[in-house]
Specification:
The chain has 97 residues and is mainly alpha-helical. It has a single domain, classed as Non-ribosomal Peptide Synthetase Peptidyl Carrier Protein, Chain A (Orthogonal Bundle). The protein contains five helices and two strands; from the N terminus they run E-E-H-H-H-H-H. Strands 1-2 form a two-stranded antiparallel sheet. Strand 1 and strand 2 form a beta hairpin. The chain is globular. The N terminus is likely disordered.
């Protein structure tokens, strides 16, 4: 949803999430948060510190990223900086394409 105020259009951050972020969100919702409200998971929701991703879930997400985006994620890259939020994951994938 976009909001117009004083002739300026402000975008809801969810609307700005790119194709990569949307695919990552869909995967996380299906694999780790089935039945939860998708609106509660934004690109800035904490994944690791919020308890959504543990070590096994992170490995599953890495496999998903490698298979779907044809990238290689190194072990040292599976940290809070790269997997802290969907936005972080999206940046990581973009940097490897």
């Amino acid at each position: 949803m976009n909001i117009t105020y004083a002739n300026r259009v402000y975008f809801n951050r969810e609307d700005v999430m790119g194709e990569i972020g949307n695919k990552v969100k869909e995967f996380i919702m299906q694999e780790f948060l089935p039945g939860e409200d998708p609106d509660q998971l934004s690109e800035s929701t904490p994944l690791i510190s919020g308890g959504i991703l543990d070590s096994l879930a992170t490995l599953k997400l890495v496999s998903f990223l490698e298979e779907n985006f044809n990238i290689k994620v190194e072990a040292h890259e599976t940290d809070e900086d790269n997997f802290g939020t969907i936005a972080d994951v999206e940046k990581l994938v973009q940097s490897k394409q």
